[in-house]
Amino acid sequence: xxxxxVLELHDVAHILHLWTGIPLGxxxxxxxxxxxxxxxxxxxxxxxxxxxxxxVADALAIQRxxxxxxxxxxxxxxxxxxSGVGKTELAKAVAEEMFDSEKNLIRLDMVEYQEAHSxxxxxxPPPGYMGNDEGGQxxxxxxxxxxxxxxxDEVENAHKNLWSLLLxxxxxxxxxxxxxxxxxxxxxxxxLTSNIGQQFILEGYKEARALSGSNEKGGAxxxxxxxxxxxxxxxxxxxxxxxxxxxGTGKSPKDVLRRMRQKVLKEVFGYFKPQVIGRMSEIxxxxxxxxxxxxxxxxxxxxxxxxGLAARGVDFKVADSAMTYILExxxxxxxxxxxxxxxxxxxxxxxxxxxxxxxxxKRGDRAVLARxxxxxxxxxxxxxxxxxxxxxRPGTKYGTKLVVxxxxxxxxxxxxxxxx
Length: 420
Fold this sequence. Notes:
The protein is an alpha/beta fold. It contains 16 helices and 11 strands. The protein has 3 domains: 31-194, 3-Layer(aba) Sandwich (Rossmann fold); 198-285, no CATH class; 291-415, Helicase, Ruva Protein, domain 3, CATH 1.10.8.60. The strands form 3 sheets. It has a 5-stranded parallel sheet with strand order 2-3-6-1-7. It has a 4-stranded mixed sheet with strand order 8-9-10-11. Strands 4-5 form a two-stranded antiparallel ribbon. The chain is globular, with a radius of gyration of 25 Å. Residues 216-254 are annotated as: Disordered.
């Protein structure tokens, strides 16, 4: 019909995004402000882990500035710490903020790679074997999404043959699959998580916080997270030595945390070969969540419920009394935010869902989660219809009992992760 088709830059970028998995935003927007604000952005999602967030943000800034070798991954980190402290959440957050989507997180559960023969699945079975056409679980995923965060979760569970496969990739920034195809990892951030030394971490921070007289702030957390200048060792943990218990070993919280880090790194060096440790950009210790951080994590987890109800037209509020109620029953020093998430899944969401399905909680309603005024062990949902001004219509308010449960001592909550 004589009309010309004009392709704009964003059209080309979109096509390349579909072909390669390279995030659209990386090609069309200035990354400067995003990179410079990355630590602040990540801190909104990963609560109570300032040093871990800063280390990852700094590594990405260094890479964007062109100060890193171009034949290596963007960075290679080992995250140490107990469950529920934000190790996996930080990986998810980086994938979304730097690569536009959590879909650019390639997560590999190392429990599935405990046998020697299972390691070959990462690059694909040899020619002639079943599944060879499908490619490797690692190499194919990175080939399709070359700008990704690659997470090796609980890496201590993998067979030792994993390292003969990965070390060349960490050195040279590429890995060949079973067909001989070379896959580029230079635009990937590599993260290894491990629970090694978690008991030392839990004990060390507990003692340090007791010495500082407060569980509200991280105390000397900055000194322990990456080690660095505090103990004369690098972030890779060189010079770690054996020490005894924590109580009475130091005159300050920093002394306790420095010794804790030494014990943790000795465990790490005893498990992983020096060649592995030497290829880490940094080994980061995630601190157990303190009271303030636990409250912040609970707020984040409740926000997902708030958004879900908002999509159904329900104005959902959480009273401070409800926050305290849940923290008393679900906050765990040992299991961090994970146990609180399970509490919401077991006790809150299953009791709200029937109200939505039955129509008792509907579009235009307000629902407030609050502790009962008469029974401190009871959690209620107060519902009312809203008028045009956003106030409750007279005669529409009612309360429904969601949970009746006594609070558990902290030691009982830390004893086991289940909520039975």
